[in-house]
């Protein structure tokens, strides 16, 4: 049986969950307007159930910490995009400061959405093969640096995913404390349903229903990611495998720690 966690970290997580004030009407009007240009937000947004959003929404840097997107049943839909990037509808990411450090958001929440597209959370890179990851991976403190540079405590809850041929939820390098909970993952993927990438840790995948059909891979891939909790999920179509655990030998010159 695990011992109770100390109060201080719990207090810090609770602090990061204090919601940002609501956005003004201008950003909501921009989101509801026709188009597919990404829109950045550093405030909280509540939509109406009849809303359909075709703009990708980006929460970037510490300025976005504590932001909440409550779709209230609305549909963020970028499924008409031609590429994986164009089909990514929610992004929570760090931004480089240009001085070798990264400014990371924490405590971002996305809930009550009908998502037709993908969600990505990342720090040093969208995946573990980029140049920033390669340079960092040659240092002994790579794991600590990747985690300090990446988003923390991002919560994706009560989401109905309809994946348009790709990975619905991708947890990028160094991300810690991400959670996918109380959600339904449907649609199709040429890869997996959930990917936990290198040097990420302490993430949670709980109380979800996996209905998605994968082309040839498993539903959840844990690739060089540590101390995660995967509990109380239902896999309806695990024809190609349920949960696979990897320690990748490295790609693009990136050393896996």
Write a brief structural summary.
With 257 residues, this protein is mostly beta strands. It contains 4 helices and 25 strands.
Radius of gyration: 17 Å
CATH level-two architecture: 3 Solenoid
Instruction: Please indicate the count of domains.
Output: 1
**Count of DSSP strands:** 25
**Helix share bin:** 10-25%
Q: Output the CATH class name.
A: Mainly Beta
Order of helices and strands: HHEEEEEEEEEEEEHHEEEEEEEEEEEEE
Spans of at least 5 consecutive residues whose pLDDT stays below 50 are 1-15
CATH topology, what is it called?
Pectate Lyase C-like
Descriptive overview:
The protein is mainly beta. It has one domain: Pectate Lyase C-like. The protein has 4 helices and 25 strands.
């Amino acid at each position: 049986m695990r011992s109770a966690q100390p109060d201080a970290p719990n207090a810090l997580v609770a602090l990061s969950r204090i919601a940002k004030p609501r956005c003004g009407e201008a950003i909501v009007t921009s989101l509801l307007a026709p188009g597919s240009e990404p829109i950045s937000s550093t405030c909280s947004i509540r939509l109406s159930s009849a809303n359909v959003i075709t703009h990708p929404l980006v929460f970037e840097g510490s300025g976005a910490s504590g932001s909440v997107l409550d779709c209230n049943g609305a549909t963020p839909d970028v499924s008409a995009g031609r590429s994986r990037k164009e089909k990514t509808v929610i992004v929570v990411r760090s931004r480089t400061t240009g001085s070798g450090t990264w400014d990371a958001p924490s405590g971002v929440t996305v809930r009550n959405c009908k998502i037709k597209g993908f969600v990505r959370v990342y720090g040093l890179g969208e995946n573990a093969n980029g140049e920033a990851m390669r340079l960092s991976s040659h240092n002994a403190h790579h794991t600590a640096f990747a985690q300090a540079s990446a988003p923390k405590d991002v919560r994706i809850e009560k989401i109905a995913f309809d994946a348009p041929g790709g990975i619905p939820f991708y947890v990028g390098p160094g991300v810690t404390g991400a959670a996918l909970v109380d959600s339904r993952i449907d649609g199709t993927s040429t890869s997996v349903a959930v990917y936990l990438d290198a040097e990420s840790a302490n993430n949670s995948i709980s109380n979800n229903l996996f209905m998605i059909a994968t082309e040839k891979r498993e539903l959840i891939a844990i690739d060089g990611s540590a101390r995660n909790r995967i509990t109380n999920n239902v896999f309806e179509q695990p024809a190609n495998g349920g949960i696979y655990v990897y320690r990748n030998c490295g790609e693009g010159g990136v050393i896996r720690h």
